[in-house]
Fold this sequence. Notes:
By secondary structure, the protein is mainly alpha-helical. It has one domain. The protein contains 7 helices and no strands. The radius of gyration is 19 Å and the shape is globular. The N and C termini lie far apart (60 Å).
Amino acid sequence: MRVRLAMAAAALVVTGAACSQSPPMVTGRELYGRHCASCHGEAADGNGPVAASLRRRPSDLRTIARRHGGRFDEAYVMSVVDGRRLVAEHGPREMPVWGAVFEEQSSKSGYAGYASLLHSRALADYVRTLQAK
Length: 133
C-alpha cells in the first residue's frame, strides 16, 4: 500500500512539474491586440492604423450582433478568424491566415490544431465583449 501511495505521489509531482512548464495561454484581448487591432482598431471600430491603406474598410467588429439580427453568431466569427469563411483581406482560402498562424505558433506543442481552436475561441469570446449594446 505504501509503495502505491509513493508511486501515486511521484506521478502527481511529475505531472504537476510538466504542467507548470507549459506556456501560459494567451487571452483573447492579447490575440486581438496582436493580430486584429492594426486593421480593426483598438476600439474594434474598423479604424486601425492600417485601415486607410486597404481597398476595403475593415469591419466594425462592435456591430456583429446587430448585423446578425441581434445575435452574436459565434460559429460565424470563429470561421472568419480561423479561415474557414473567406474574407479577402485575411488571405486566400487555401491558407486560412489566423488558423494557420495559430497552428504554426503551436506546432511544437503536439496539440497545434487544438491550440489553434482555443485561440480562435478566445478571440471570438473577446469580440463578443465588444458588441455595442
